[in-house]
Predict the 3D structure of the following.
Amino acid sequence: QSALTQPASVSGSPGQSITISCTGTSSDIGDYTYVSWYQQHPGKAPKLLIYEVFNRHSGVSNRFSGSKSGNTASLTIAGLQAEDEADYYCASYTNANTVGVFGGGTRVTVL
Amino acid sequence: EVQVVQSGAEVKKAGESLKISCEGSGYTFSKYWIAWVRQTPGKGLEWVGVIYPGDSETRYSPSFQGLVTISAAKSTSTAYLQWSSLKATDSAIYYCARVGVVVPAAVNSYYYVMDVWGQGTTVTVSS
């Protein structure tokens, strides 16, 4: 399956806001509100942040928020902190297969 | 505490078979789908497939259909991912995860959200 398109890296200073984009097609993000975001620190398992575009998973800071416009979903991290330095993956339902599709991942660096 | 715990790292030779496991605890194992996801070194996440332990319904990513087998044993709250003949390209970290949210997206088609992840099993295959 074709992966969703994410920028390879995004960086920001502590306290700033950053936005990670995730671009798909009408087979996935464009026609459905079924997008998830996962955070993965180096050497660790992924953790669920957001599901169904904007719903925060239990215990996730409200500094993380999700949105969608057309074929592109976005994850915004407000008030960037050192602990936010990690890889972030989007995922979406797709009508092209029976399981779903992931984005290629974005490395967030806190300057 | 809800958790899924995976079996340990494996080192194999090409052509050998392998079965790795994922044990769920702290919840009713048979009522939640289990997903398998692959991560190759320095690369991203890829769907392998999902299984519903209640009736063993299984769905595979097209990239893995016919190459691996996913199964589950309700009696031991354990899901499995197995290969009959490994290749060097199967070297990766394999994660299992509980699917906490399942949304019917279309006829016989679902959106899966993985809310509890295992620690990962590293599989190394030498040629």
